[in-house]
Structures are given as structure tokens and as C-alpha cells.
Amino acid sequence: MKDILEQLHITANNKGVSTGRQWLESSGETISSFSPVNGKLIGSVQACDAVTYRQVAARAQDAFVQWRTVSAPRRGEIVRQIGGELRRKKEPLGKLVSYEMGKSLQEGLGEVQEMIDICDFAVGLSRQLYGLTMQSERPNHRMYEQWHPLGVVGIISAFNFPVAVWSWNAAIAWVCGNVCIWKPSEKTPLCAIACQHIVAEVFERNDIPEGVSCLINGYRDAGEWLCNDEHVALISATGSTRMGKAVAASVAARLGKTILELGGNNAIIISKEADLDMALIGCVFGAVGTAGQRCTTTRRLIIHTSVYDSFKQKIINAYQQLRIGNPLDAANHVGPLIDKGAVEMYQQAIEACKQQGGSFVVEGGVLQGEGYQSGCYVKPCVAEVQSNWPIVQHETFAPILYLMKYDNIEDAIAMQNSVPQGLSSSIFTLNMREAELFLSNRGSDCGIANVNIGTSGAEIGGAFGGEKETGGGRESGSDAWKAYMRRQTNTINWGNDLPLAQGIKFTV
Where are the annotated coiled coils located (predicted)? Predict the structure, then answer.
């Protein structure tokens, strides 16, 4: 791992605050990053303090004044170069993501690929920031709308995707003409430092001013500074529903804008007309990928009564084949949870499920012994439950899968929609009518609804986000770029007189 860290400019002790090519001194406390893979200290980071935050914020505001004057295609060209650097650094950065966060190496590399993909998407977008032309009711008038950058965009990201979700926001924000201040999770600070080095080199090579890409490592207070800063036009925050509500309240109090991507409690409906072998792959990957620590993780299986027993047995057999261990070993399917706090929540959820009447068909537990010294490795488990139980309504960020039965498709959809969260959903069926019902306005109430694929693994081309307690925000593809800009309606009178709208007459 030492050579990987050197390639990414990670040292034993790192400054955690940057305005680009400059890394600022700070009196903030030290953040120590321990790998959940083996419990070893990877490195430490100096957290941001209030004084240093103000320096960063001021630099970002100054940079925006210059960055917004750069043409959008030119901004896109710079983002294209960032994508090129990420291609060159894909392997070491993917390994760092895997080692610091604990997800499998394939998922770590896949996360960096998402960054590359969003850069490609943003490059094309830089020439498509379109407006509309409308017909005016007044003669010799032209109406149209255009979009302008907001200014400073604050990005608060979570540990489970330590680099990809930041890039979804940053790449789009940059081509739209904004500057960014990134507050990463304190659980994965080194991934953020590696990305900042990569981006800063590209901006410096293109003679772009300091402050277009800023980084503030820190704890909750750093996020609060961002949210309460009236000069930060937009906060895009990823995390728990509890955190999102606090962010929304703070930003709304100053009439700022938010993009919230919060909790998910995602379900897959298994129809009696499903391809069960194909469904098995989607269900197991969705449930155990990233050790159940994705916001799109499959947490509930709603299975038709007629295929319940046979599909349950398929799940049990598949879980017995799972290999749990060092995520850098490609032979392993499941890595560790992020830390021992996550392990405690996993254990508490299992106990609550049992107390509420849950029957575990695949038992859970914490793994110990050779290879599991970090104390963060747990067994993915499966329980039979009722959909209205409190534990089923709650999102536990761990590999716990709940099974439940249904008799008709309307009941299955109602069960799917019965939880407070509304991020991702899926149905496996070869029945066209069931599929179309699931996608209709009488179907899934989630922001993402899939047919014959699982709940996780969203592509960057579609807008990502959910409804209800998931927050309602959208990131990444489609027209999500509009959230990073302000709309302006323009009317031009090219005639010789001044008629008023609605036929109003006024003379002086």
C-alpha cells in the first residue's frame, strides 16, 4: 500500500484544507484514518478550523468571479483533462478507496470509473446548457430563458462512496460555472486528499485561479460552517435522513438551495413470473455489495407466495457461498463494515429483529480470528419478517436482508411503498402488465424504479435521487444540471413602442 499512497501524494501526516494548489495550515484537531481492512493507521489529516474555513470561503468567492467568465466549452475541456488524469490514476485511487473504505477492489475501481464517466458526461453537457424561446403576446418582442451559475457550491459527501458522489456534483457544477467547497466524510479523508491533488494539478496546468476546487476536511462543525454560510448558494449533501433534515433546516433558514440524497430502504419484488436465476444475482449483489453500506442496498425482498420457498432456498444457498475477507483480494465478495460503530448498529438491528419476531434463515454475527483482526467483518444475514415491523421500516447500514411474502401485485407494491424512504426499487417479472404497473403512477413511489435489474448500480446518465425521507434531490445525469444554475427569463422589445402585457393601457 505504501507505493499506492506515494503515487497519490498521501503521507503519514497531511494538511486537510486546500484551495487548489495551496494546502493551508490549520489548528483543527487531527483526524486519524484507520483501514477497516486490517485496523492499521493509514495516515492522519489536520482538520479545518473556523478561521481557515473563512479563508477558503473567501478564496472560493473570488475565484467564482473569474471562473464564470471562462466559456462553458472551455470549462468542459478542463473537466475532460481531469477525467484523463483519473484514467491514469484509476488503479491506485481504486485501491485506496477499497483500503480506506473497505469495499471490494472491483467496487473501488468501479467508483473511480464513475468519476471518469461523469467527467465525460460533463464535457458533453458543457456545450448543451440550453434555454428555451417562448412566444410573446406583445408584438415585436422576444422572450427566452437562460441559465447562469449559482456561485459557490458546497458538497458534503458520505463515507460509502468517498469519491464518486463528490465527482457527480463537482464535474457538473464546474461546467455550469460554479466553484466548489468539498467537505468529505471524516471516515475517508485520504481519498478526498488524493482527489484534490489530481484536480489541482489540472487546474494549475490550465492557469485556473485558486479556489475553483476547495477541500475542507473536518467533522460536523465543518459541515455546519458550509450550511450556515450565506455565500454558499447550494449545499448538496449525502448522508442519513437525520443529517439531511438538519442541513435542510439550516440552509432553508437563509433561503439557500439544497440537493439532498439521504436514506434508502430499498425493496425488490420477486414475481411468480420472474426469471429466478437472474433475480438471484441482482438480489444478492444488491444486498451484500459494499457490505450493505450503499444507499441503494437491497434491504427487503417481497416474494410471491408461490415461489417464496424455492427462492428463499436459492438465497440461502448463495449466501453460503459468499467469501468474506480482505476486499483487495479479488476472490472475496464482501469486505468489512466501515468501523466498529457500524458493527454495533448491525448487532443491535439483529437483536431488534429477533425481539420483534424475526426468524433468521441465515444467521449473522461478527467474524473473529485470522484476517478479521480489525473487528469490522460481519456475516451477511437473512431474516423472515413482516413488512410493518419497526425494524423493517428502519434503514440499517449493514448486510441484513429481510424476506416477506405477498399474494397479489397490488399488495406487493403497497408493501414496497410502506416505508418512509423512497430511493430505489425493483421488480423481477416477465409479465409486461406487472412491469408497467410497477412503473406507473400507481406503482413504485421511489425516485428510481427498475425492471429485471437490482436496486443498486445506477448509471450516471440518469438523474439519481429519491422521494420522501430520501430528500427529493437529484444528482448526476439527465437535466440534474439545472439544480446547479439559476434560471433567468429575458424579454427583448425590438419594436418602436411599448405595449404592455395583458392588454393593459398606460399613457403619460
Answer: none
